[in-house]
Amino acid sequence: xxxxxxxxxxxxxKAALQAAQARAKRRAFWLVAPLxxxxxxxxxxxxxxxxxxxxxxxxxxxxxPRLTAWFAANPGAADDAAWExxxxxxxxxxxxxxxxxxxxxxxxxxxxxxxxxxxxxRKAKDFAPPYREALLKADKDWDxxxxxxxxxxxxxxxxxxxxxxxADLARDxxxxxxxxxxxxxxxxxxxxxxxxxxxxxxxxxLILAYPVAHLLATLPMRWxxxxxxxxxxxxxxxxxxRTTSWMVLLQQQGVINNMMVAAGIIGEDxxxxxxYNQTGTIIAMTHILLPFMILPLYSVMKTxxxxxxxxxxxxxxxxxxxxxxxxxxxxxPGIGAGxxxxxxxxxxxxxTPALVGGASGQLISNLIAFHMQDSLxxxxxAALAAILLALVLVLYWLYDxxxxxxxxxxx
Amino acid sequence: xxxxxxxxxxxxxxxRTRIAICVVIFLFLMAPILIVIPLSFxxxxxxxxxxxxxxxxxxxxxxxxxxxxxxxxxxxPEGERDSAWWADAWANAQWVxxxxxxxxxxxxxxxxxxxxxxxxxLGLSRPEMPGRKLxxxxxxxxxxxxxxxxxxxxxxxxxxxxxxLGPLGPEGGCGRLTSTYIGVILAHATLGIPFVIIxxxxxxxxxxxxxxxxxxxxxxxxxxxxxxxxxxxxxxxxVSGALFAFVTSFDEVVVVLFIGSHExxxxxRQMWNxxxxxxxxxxxxxxxxxxxxxxxxxxxxxxxxxxSERLRGVTPQ
Amino acid sequence: MKLKxxxxxxxLTSAAFAAQAxxxxxxxxxxxxxxxxxxxxxxxxxxxxxxxxxMVAVDNPATPIKAMVEAKNVTVDVxxxxxxxxxxxxxxxxxxxxxxSKLPAAPDGMSAADDFLPGAVTECAVASIVFxxxxxxxxxxxxxxxxxxxxxxxxxxxxxxxxxxxxxxANLEMALMADGVPASEVYxxxxxxxxxxxxxxxxxxxxxxxxxxxxxxxxxxxxxxxxVAMTTAYNGRIFxxxxxxxxxxxxxxxxxxxxxxxxxxxxxxxxxxxxMEYIAFATDTQRLADQAKWIAYGPARKSSGALVGKYNxxxxxxxxxxxxxxxxxxxxLASSYDFWVDRDSELNEKFNAWLVAx
Lengths: 411, 317, 358
Known about the structure:
The complex is a heterotrimer of chains A (411), B (317) and C (358).
Chain A: H1 13-54, H2 65-73, H3 80-96, H4 99-109, H5 114-123, H6 131-138, H7 145-154, H8 161-166, E1 169-171, E2 177-179, H9 187-218, H10 221-236, H11 239-250, H12 255-262, H13 278-301, H14 306-314, H15 319-347, H16 351-356, H17 364-373, H18 378-402
Antiparallel strand pairs in A: 1-2
Chain B: H1 9-39, H2 51-54, H3 64-71, H4 83-92, H5 94-124, H6 132-144, H7 147-159, H8 181-205, H9 209-217, H10 222-250, H11 254-259, H12 267-277, H13 281-311
Chain C: H1 2-20, E1 23-28, H2 31-49, E2 52-57, H3 62-70, E3 78-82, H4 83-91, H5 112-115, E4 125-138, H6 149-152, E5 162-165, H7 171-178, H8 186-190, H9 193-207, E6 210-213, H10 218-224, E7 230-234, H11 235-244, E8 249-264, H12 272-282, H13 285-291, E9 298-299, H14 302-305, E10 332-334, H15 337-356
Parallel strand pairs in C: 1-2, 1-3, 5-6, 5-7, 8-10
Antiparallel strand pairs in C: 3-8, 4-7, 4-8, 4-9
């Protein structure tokens, strides 16, 4: 029978160890706690709040209280009470100057209705019973059942309608989900385009990074350190500086076109449009993201002993076979790490496409910015951001599973 | 990358081709940075090399665009360059003010990010840390999440920060953080934190734990051990992390555009406006200055890396 | 240590400057137009009141206003917006009402209400200028240049890239006029779906070769850089580039779309009384006439018209460059705010979908 081991002061060793372990755990956690709290407050919570906004919009319900209450209580078609609620709400909104907000909310679902609300609200102070007739006199469109269907939908502050819109879908008058007309389908295509462009950029980066990383990994330290600076300097240089230089280089009257004209490759009229289109986006983003591909590749290649390749050659493999069967498989972790990182960063890019992308080189981030700053459809912007975020988090999770985030290195 | 002695002529050719390809790729990497520097000295407001420039004629070069950086926005740019002129430039010149804002915001966000980030990295590198994987994932996420999403979220949040407290918050909110320096500083600190964590953890991972145990066994308190043993060894990592955080803030434009106003006009924000409207060569002058700044930063980081490798006894092969 | 001192000094000076003088912030369109406003309004106002007037340049000041008011983050006192936006923002309760009684009478005693052009003073806005969206080309590329709106859409006769404003407004009108619709019928046509489709069909013709600009300063730059051969632009920007900078740009007035630009005060502006004073000051007879010395936009007061003379170089006569001069109005369209207040969001939505679709 084993005796229970005790510490010098007589406590069971197991318990003492556990207590020490718990203390160490707590201590470690308290070191992390301030930052964790900081990041939760200034990063995670705001993004969570934004997600709520993507499913919440009280533009209608907050300013049309009577009609909202009527919708909640009555499932059927509009009766006199509904018309009265509508008329009185419009009267109030004219005084409070909120008809534009209400109209905008309805307009998101049923295009062309914003003016119905604003123009009717302007005439609303003379409304008297019977309200239905008064409203129809102001505008006969009020009788449209589709409009009432939409008003019922938007009277609920919480809804998934903005996610539907972000997927080019909509609810029709009786609530069935349908695709929007072809000339309004925007977002699905743009998500696809963003992913395709990010894929192209990742692939270009990989093709360019592979030989460079290999060179850096096989040169003597003295030389590779020197050449490494050529990779790190762009990495440290401001994004805007690099984008600006690409604009200078790619313009029709820019350095590259001028050089080609001077060399007689193209004529004065044949200047190539390399900017304000997808080409510009791809070139500039490839340049900006290239170091993120070179660095992980390099760190993997550096650990591959050259003796393997030599052994393969001595056993009679051609250099191509040696590369394909021996070297390439060993660099796969680097390829995975670099590609995933570049792809994740490319999918969310905003600045460079906005400056050099023109109309065809825009990515999903640019449309989020457009809805935030120009069209001011914040709920839709939040819904698009939520979808993009979900996709990026999946990639992030994948990265963690395959490579491990602890292995992320800089320079 | 010397060729083995048994290489065939075809392999030799391929070897040369490969080196040529690498040279082209290095050119691609450096060209944008190299091009802006000479063009920023162009006497003409064009973005191409004039005949005079190519002939290295001094008349083809000038400092006028650098001068414009000082004078743009001044009350009396024409006057004599005495102390009043410089005071005017300091107070009113747009680029000078933008530089001041960038430095102020960068400085404070770096302090915040480095302080919190280093502490957290110390915690994360302890083997006893509970939930390390999840917490690391959360702390590094500001680097992964597209900045437009961060900016959007912060915009809503900063408009009414107390809404986070829900019904507990004060009635009618508690002011705003949008268009404030504090708001931008907090946001930039968040964006810089992952870089601090990564660099400091990297230094700590190669840190020999027996050193702290030795110190403890010799009677040093944990605090003393930290300041006398651990800190000196991880300082290079901390400083590199701080530089990364500073550069992140110094280069950040999307968040400033979303949550800042004209009062928080930083260099990138000013550049953004300038590039969108017209790339005047003074933008290239700013770009050149920024390139020089990044060369300086890179040099410091490289020197620190070597110092830290020497300290930790990692010898270069 | 040095860094610390420098930072402290910076912090102190900026604090000192914040405290030193009151600052009025005006949000406008940037570029040459901003210069004209700074010279004609801001500098004399700052001198008269002993304060600082700040200028903030954005693509279109109407868009940030809503974001600012809704986020309770209003940092500007005065903004310069287009007519339809002024009405729309006013409808949504995003603007302070204007006290029209503060607007000064004309020098000959005519009341402000009579002196301003019709519709130039509304509940929430006061017009300062009349501007036009026109198209312009590089004369070195087309010595026998385009002369009609239809030429802008004719890639065979006048090959080369085009640039247009990124938005539905003015583009749809121009497209219809190019397609042969008389100016007087453009809006009636755009009220119908068929009319809108017809306009987009016309835009389809040049879509592949068009770059879309957002800031008013971009089109002259695109022309100067040789990125495009022809572009639509605000007439004053082309004037500034052609006359002040000597660029070989020619404005084509056929099919121009003209309208007012108006001053508004965003709801909750930090200095709204001062903002009203600024607007009253800037829109008096002399100031509006002065502005026309700097850019080719017509003043919104009748009494200013007579005072408009030459450009600030002292030799260029401004009249031929004004959107409102008779020679430029032969085939011109007054932008309809009635139409755009109601249809703006819908048509822009359609426009953006059209733009993204391949």
